[in-house]
Amino acid sequence: MPPPGPIPSSQTMNFPAPGLGLDQRKLDSVRAFLDPEEAEEGEEGQLLEPQAWRTYVERRTALREFLTSDLSPHLLKRHHARVELLQKCSYYLEVLPKHLALGDQNPLALPNTMLQFVDPWKFQRMKRVGTAQTKIQLLLLGDLLEQLDRGRAQLDTLLESPDPRPFLAGWGHVERRLSELAAVMDNFLAMMVPGRLHIKHRLVTDIGATKVPHIRLMLSTKMPVMFDRKESVAHQDWVSLRWFVTVQPAAPEQFELRFKLLEPRTQQECTQCGLIPVAACAFDVHNLLPNRAYKFTIKRAESYMLVYEPWRDSLTLHTKPAPTEGARPLPLGPARPAPNCPL
Q: What order of strands is seen across the sheet that includes strand 255-261?
């Protein structure tokens, strides 16, 4: 599967939607449909009338071009990959000014400056709205993509039918199905990026004569954090971990690395777990047990603007066996031991 293209960190709902449907000139050339009775005029085993046959060939060719271009398996495969990527992204609330108050000559306030004017309780409520909107949007994307898959399968089955008469008799239904799939594709493409949140109440508390620009809230995305499977390796009593983000952020990010010994055998081994704050894309975890399996997970550190983060990458590595029996590791150093640290 080819890797999906990058998603900008913050976009509006205005996503360019390519045209979907049959070439109108081709449809106009075959607008005179045949009734089922007309399609069955010829006796079984005989060819259709010349005009009916030409109509059949034109419509079949137009439908085949549609299925190999506008709704091709390659295009649907790319859409599946992009939806899977969106389901792994982190979603944040972004506070932006609409415009300056009339007569105000000051520059636009920075989002972090504007937050001091935002009512904290109302802001938390909008974060819950953003979480709900993101979940609904991801569910709708999956449902619309399933509709496109089913629609293509139905049209492909009709196209492969060896009998031209049912094809001609059902052409009106085919056109309606194409129109429905066009609307589904338009909706799907419009939902591929997060958009603006609808605000029913003011977020800024009245602050007297102070002029504050009107606020708009947007949902933004950050690409998922992924372990580098080739560069992350296990040694006898330590592991070297590397991770990355497909679209590098403008500013350094903070991460949370968790690790846990799988299948501990003693109560003391249950302490072989921890959470490590990391301000880089690499970290070495030392003082592990040899010849044991460890699970590691990586995610961004929690932030005030985060509204939804449904996924985190995980990796299981097996340390190498010790050269001699009886060697015991030293107590954990870089991590903060925690008896209960679910991954």
A: 313-318, 293-300, 255-261, 273-278, 336-337
**What global pTM score does this model have?**
0.70
- At 239, the amino acid letter reads V
120-159 and 171-190 helices, crossing angle to 10°: 150
Please say whether the beta carbons of 79 and 196 come within 8 A: no
Single-letter amino acid code for the residue at 24? Q
Sign of torsion, CA 174 175 176 181?
A: positive
Is a pLDDT exceeding 50 seen at residue 85? Answer: yes
Candidates 262, 261, 260, 223; CA nearest to 243 is 223
Alpha carbon distances (Å) from 154 to 20, 151, 161, 173, 330: 17, 5, 11, 12, 63
Residues in CB range of 214: below 8 A, 6 or more apart: 97, 98, 99
pLDDT digits (tens, 9 = 90+) for 252-288: 899 999 999 999 999 999 999 999 999 999 999 999 9
